[in-house]
Write a structure and sequence with these properties.
This protein has about 90 residues and is α+β, with helices and mostly antiparallel strands. About 30% of the residues lie in helices and about 40% in strands. The chain has one helix and five strands, in the order βββββα. A five-stranded antiparallel sheet has the order 4-3-2-1-5, with no helix packed on it.
Length: about 90
């Protein structure tokens, strides 16, 4: 939520926007500027499958930065152990 994405496939290909909601049960995301007008004039958000989008910029808050640092440390240590086991 809050990341900038670009749509790569489908009707809205090439359009960009910010992720507003992530609907994990239906495996879809709702993007800020991707809406359709309903018959009564209301605007309705179009669900997009995340595999059809590419993240262009991340919204980095303190928790997300900590998660990325932790993942970076784990991958470095795994590579180091893998190289030691090869010898």
């Amino acid at each position: 939520k809050g990341d900038q994405v670009k749509i790569m496939r489908g009707t809205y290909k090439g359009r960009e926007g910010k992720v507003q909601t992530v609907y994990r049960r239906r495996w879809c995301i709702h993007i800020e500027k991707i809406v359709r007008e309903k018959g009564n004039g209301q605007q309705h958000q179009i669900p997009m499958h995340p595999s059809n989008c590419v993240v262009t910029t991340l919204k980095l808050d303190k928790d997300r930065k900590a998660l990325l640092e932790r993942k970076k440390r784990v991958t470095k240590s795994n590579k180091k152990h893998a190289m030691e086991n090869m010898d």
